[in-house]
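note to self — DONT lose this again. spent like an hour looking for the file last time. sequence + predicted structure for the chain T wanted, 215 res
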Amino acid sequence: MHRIRPSEQRKGAPKRIQPASPHRRRILEEARRHFFASGFRNVTMDDLAAELGMSKKTFYAHFSSKSTLLEAVLQQKLEEIGADLDQATGEKSADFLTLLHQLLACLQRHMDEIRPPFIRDIQREAPEMFKLVETQRRKYIRQHFGKVLGEGRKAGLIRNDVSVEMIIEILLGGVQAIMNPQKIEEFGLTPKRCLLNVVRVILHGALTERGRAKV
């Protein structure tokens, strides 16, 4: 089976997307809509060009292959998630409950776009990119849930008999175990619902009684 391979840059955080030309922006929007909703295995570059009413020459001038197009779509999405999470947890004056609700709302919004076929295709046909997604997911969970749980600990709403670091590791393990095509299909849920179920179950166990009453 042919596997899509990303370009050589790949050392952690996604590179920042350069300002897009109108054609590039339209291609990314159309590819993103198709890839995230239906997967990318059966979507051809020629199909996308035809749907956009764009010549193949113009289309391929911006993206020479499906691999480069998929990578650009993923980088755009990861950059958006990172920026939105920064905003959701960046209010210095916000209390634990406000930060938590904003964090969960941000996750729901971003995960709502991604359907099971995309998770299936990226794991099977673009494993290097799937690893990139997993790496960024771990980074975002450590950074943003760590910050929010730390605020909850200070407010007496997160139990203090288990370290925040251990709670984060448990959360990472749960997400890693569930957020794969096999489990998503087995449970018959969307990626969004799987992620939120894991977060809520573990968060419930991390809250104090007072915290559960408030949340």
